[in-house]
Amino acid sequence: MLQDYGTDKPGLWFTYFMRNSPLWSLSYEWWFYMLFFVFYKFLIRSPYRLLTAFMISFVSGITYIIYPNHASLVFAYFIIWWTGYEAADVYFKQKTFTFQNMKWLIASNFAILALFMVYQFSQHQIESALGIEAIIVKKPIIHFSTCVFFLGFGLFWWRFQLIGFNQLMGVFLYVAPISYALYVLHFPILKIWDLYKYFDYKESLLNMVIVNSIRITVLITLSYLMEIKIQPIINKYLK
Amino acid sequence: MKTVKAILLFIALACLAFKGFGQQFNSNVKSKINNITVDTITKKQIIAFIDTISFDPNLDLAQQIMPIDSILNYICKYSPTLKMFDATPLIIRQALRFGQQSVILFFLLSGFVIYIATSRAESVPFRDYFIKRFRRIYPVMLGAFLVSFIISFIDGNFFELFNGKVLIGIY
């Protein structure tokens, strides 16, 4: 559980398995779970838990810039995941989202975004001042920008009574029970599996429909088997 | 043979529907489509296409599909009306490019959900917590490994892709 996707994120230790690049996020999720337990045990009732999570992520962001490594990156990203936890806390205690009760969550993520952006745009000066090799942190910038965007957009949407939420997100209810398997299997089946080699010419529209129909059928079937049939058996024996 | 015919007709109509799908998404297409109705050439092509769905029992499936495929491609490529829908796959491709952003949304939601999962419990023993997380993530992930193995075998590039380094995950 240390795999990651290397483009524009230097210092990674391990790559994903056999070209299945979406598996990168699993290692983050796993270590967020593990780190959460530490927070749960020692900080869950502390008023400083957001500050602690932020400091961990911010310091890790700095250590990543100075010495690019996967562990620092996972810790740096932890604030994103922890923001979800804090947002739930806000919601269940205050029953609403406002800019006032979300400001520190947005600010925490924005601060780390700013850290990476400032570094990216002044890396040559930093390189010469600190004597460290400049790295590209495009992916972390994209990820933290996305996080800030989602928080801002979510707040905006909330103010408009989440108009269209059920219609838009309701679709996902149908795939939710198999969503994890769909995620980890979609890349090898939809992208890597070369079914076109069985056809004489690849540019055919009909071939495209046939190939993708087969791929989607296999993907849904395997996801269903894994999540609905096999997973309950595993749950039964692994307690 | 009726079943084969029905399947092929379904596929052919699915092709057309797939091409037509862009109408809902692409505003450029929408504005253009208002000015153009289905032209005579397209109508003739569609009729010719439907006419081809009459099968010769002496031909195999691939040979039967071929004329439909050719005509369908021809229609989609040269029809002034349908040509505009070529933007659709591009739109879908663009939408699928936001995988990284979706993962960030997932992280946020995952943190949200773990609050719900743990806030009501008086205490969460590490063993229970670990096992629940382990059995949620690992079995399906190992299943994905297996699928990657099988696909590389089918594609005939297993020995190119798999070695000790890949198993450990070293770059």
Mean pLDDT over the full residue set of chain A = 86
Biggest interface: chains and residue counts?
A-B, 70 and 61 residues
- Please give the oligomerization state of what you see: heterodimer
Compute the number of strand runs of chain A.
Answer: 2
Distance between the termini of chain A: 21 Å
Shape of chain A: globular
Structural class of chain A: mainly alpha
What is the number of E strands of chain B?
A: 0
What's the mean pLDDT score of chain B? 65
Helical fraction of chain A equals over 70%
How many helices of chain A does DSSP assign?
A: 9
Order of helices and strands of chain B: HHHHHHHHHH
The residue fraction in helices of chain B comes out at: over 70%
Structural class computed from helices and strand pairing of chain B = mainly alpha
Question: Helix count of chain B?
Answer: 10
Instruction: Give the strand content of chain B.
Output: under 5%
Strand content of chain A: under 5%
Rg calc of chain B: 25 Å
- Total domain modules of chain B: 2
